[in-house]
Amino acid sequence: MLKLLHYYQYKTLQKLPVLTAVFAFLLFTNQSNAQADNLQPLKVPKKLSQVTIVYDMQISTKKKKPGIAETYNGGIKTLFIQNGKTRIRMVSLMRVESIFFLPANTADKKIVLLKEYGKEKYKSFIDSAGWQKWNARYLQASVVAQNDSLEILGFLCRKVSINLSEDNSVEAYYTDSVRVENQFTEPLFASIPGLVLQYTYKSKKGSITYKASQLSEAPIDAGLFKIPTTGYKIKKFCPDCPVKETNLDEEPEDEEEPKQ
Amino acid sequence: VEHKQNILHQLQDYSATPPPGLFDKVWQTLQNSSLSDTMNNASIINAGDGHPPAELDFLRAVAVAPPAYMFSQVANVVLHPDNAIAAPPAKVVRKNFGWWKKAAAAAVLLLFGIAVVYQLMQNKTETDAVAILPSKAGNEAVAQPAMPATGSAGSNPANDSNTQQSLVQQATTGQTAKKYSEGRAKWQNQYSEKGQQSTALAFAGTDVLYKLVNYQYQDATAFMTALAASPQRRISIDRYSYVNVSEKMNGLLQRMYETKKNGKPTGKARRTKKRLEKWKKADAEYFDSKLSKNPLDIVDLSEFIFK
């Protein structure tokens, strides 16, 4: 019996260096991967459950003449989060629009789209299936770490590339120090292990950048999360409906005014 | 003879069972000589002069012959020491014991090394993180309105200008805290400048572009003057929000309100106005008609404005 025990001890100990080597390899491989893709936070990020983040929109185009993009350029996107509720609000010269994300147990619908200003102010209730269709392009998105970083609002942000397809990608800078509650509200960032403070989408004709300019943990007026009940037409949400497009290239050229 | 020390060293691992009956024979001899009684007497054993007692002298005459195979085994070891090392199992066990002890020590050292490296890397990351993490203790509330607003619209608090919402910039420790305080000071200055601006830049509760396009000319002049004086050409939408008018857009607005000598809009101004109205219509058709596109989505918005 003792001999058998010694035999097993001997066999186990004989494997010890191999096991150690495998363990060390796995540890270093894991560590180097984490450093390479920077996607695994080395510590638990602080979760912000009450926060206001303002992103400034910067749009650049290759056109010399101002186009419709200028009506969005200089606008802001604000993210409000409090008590499990989220409101994302975009304000620009062209439109002011919000999406509310309310807890499922509230009397209101869970996701509400609200166009706040304009001739036709409306609200639309979005169900989870509709929300998924709206954001279907992000389901297959892959995230690739880039060897770049940036300091935004005092946070060290790492760069990642969110590849949506072969041609489309979004470059984002995120901090792994903090996260926000209800991260599902921005499906584009579903795979990012932190808070995105800057992101850019580039196309052949120009680019849009959202950059965080303010971050606050001050209490938010609860009324900001209330959906107005009057003054808004209820519009049916139809994510599959075809889009009606207007050709903006047929704009009249600016001509010199004939002298009088 | 040359390997005398080695031979003795190797012999320590060898043992041989005495031939059967040897012990009985010795025991019988001792009993016959009545030694058993004297052996129990300590005084005999400890004779005091360091020599064995005389009663034991008879043992010198007792001789026990080693078994025959013993000589051949010893001779084998002396003549072929290599075989002797490999052959006895006891020797193998001793050698393996040394090997796994070394292996275990190496493994412990390796693990220790890995732990030290990992800890150092972890500490480095923690240090970086500490430098950038907002400190609760360092937070200082800056109770300021985001923007001055002049009107209210509806029940939406975003349009309510009576109450003021403060935005608290997160303070951090060390240099980051300094940066924040500098940033806050800059922001305060900007705010005080904004506070002195004309209310022509406050657009609470209105469709901004619609209002811009449909200004009366005298109002438009006041607006353009106020916009030019505003840092970053900022328009207040409500207490939470603002829009910075871009340089290109500013040029477009100026062009839209150009007038001829007789005070009527120029042809370029009329065309610019039509252009803005067309954009407004196109935007509504794209985003509002079926709601199949999301203007808050960066890709949907890009597809629209860059098409």
Written account of the structure:
The complex is a heterodimer of chains A (260) and B (307). Chain A is an alpha+beta fold and 260 residues long. Chain A contains two helices and 14 strands. Chain A is globular. Chain A starts with a helix and ends in a 26-residue tail after the last strand. In chain A, strands 8-9-10-12-13-2-3-4-5-6-7-14 form a twelve-stranded mixed β-sheet. Helix content of chain A is 17%, strand content 37%. A two-stranded antiparallel sheet of chain B has the order 1-2. In chain B, helix 11 crosses helix 12. The relative contact order of chain B is 0.06. The chains are: A alpha+beta (260), B mainly alpha (307). Chains A and B meet through helix 1, strand 2, strand 3, strand 4 and strand 5 of A and helix 7, helix 8, helix 9, strand 2 and helix 11 of B.
In short:
Chain A is α+β, with helices and mostly antiparallel strands and about 260 residues long. Chain A has helices spanning about 1-35, 130-135, and strands at about 45-50, 50-60, 75-80, 85-90, 95-100, 110-115, 120-125, 140-150, 155-165, 170-175, 180, 195-205, 205-215, 235. Chain A has a 12-stranded mixed β-sheet with strand order 8-9-10-12-13-2-3-4-5-6-7-14. In chain A, strands 1-11 form a two-stranded parallel sheet.
